[in-house]
Amino acid sequence: MTGTLALYETGSHAVVRTRRASDDADVALTGLYTANYGKLVRIAALLLDDVGLSEEVVQDAYIKVHAAWGRLRDQRAAEAYLRTAVVNLSRSRMRRRQVAQKHAPKPMPDAESAEQGAMDALDRDRVLAALRSLPRRQQECLVLRYYGDLSEAQIAEAMGISAGAVKSHASRGMSALRERLEETA
Predict the structure, then answer these.
(1) Rounded to whole angstroms, how far apart are CA atoms 59 and 144?
(2) Opening angle at CA 146, ends 142 and 148, nearest 5
(3) Integer Cα distance of 98 and 92 in angstroms
(4) Mean pLDDT of each 10-residue bin along the chain, 185 residues long
(5) Which residue, among 94, 99, 96, has the nearest Cα to 143 in the 3D structure?
(6) Domain 21-106 adopts which CATH fold?
(7) 9: β partners
(8) What SS3 class is residue 144?
(9) Closest by Cα among 76, 84, 77 to 58
(10) CATH number of 118-185
(11) Domain boundaries along the sequence of the chain
């Protein structure tokens, strides 16, 4: 196992121990987890529409970053790497879900409930439905921008596209979202 030698003083004598690279990853990722876990889960939840699955995706992203820690060129960019991993893992889960839904048996229609819930829930459902009807890239741009509170540069990095493409997708997405919401109003 490779690592660096560290000198620890214990009382009247010094002890030399090997510090593993994974110890550095553990410390760094603990800080990243504390600072970013909630935001990453929200981003994944909006992309996947499933909080439980979103938590799994974010955990998987942290595991991937931990495993790749020694290979990261710039360990200060681990937060951006995490966001990119979350977006990519969300895409992968969505593809799997779509294939499973395509081949799943048709469920029996549910009966309408007597109570429809509060107006806030209806408005939220309308916005989410309109958001999900957008093309995938537009949807991702809007979620990362307005729910993830990321800059254009951060979005471009997370999605693997140029900043100009982010602007284009976001602009088209907002226009289409407005139209869809006006249609359903």
Answers:
(1) 18
(2) 100
(3) 10
(4) 45 49 80 92 92 94 90 85 94 89 70 50 79 91 89 92 94 91 81
(5) 94
(6) Rna Polymerase Sigma Factor; Chain: A (1.10.1740)
(7) 14
(8) helix
(9) 84
(10) 1.10.10.10
(11) 21-106, 118-185
CA–CA separation, 107 and 178 (whole Å): 32
This prediction's pTM:
0.56
Query: What per-residue confidence (pLDDT) applies to 114?
Result: 44
User: What b/e readout covers 58-93, taking b as 16+ CB neighbours within 10 angstroms?
Assistant: bebbbebbbeebeeeeeeeebbebbbbbbbbbbbeb
Residues in the chain, overall count: 185
- Longest CA pairwise span in the chain (Å): 77
Contacts with 72 (C-beta within 8 Å, 6 or more apart), sequence order: 65, 78, 81
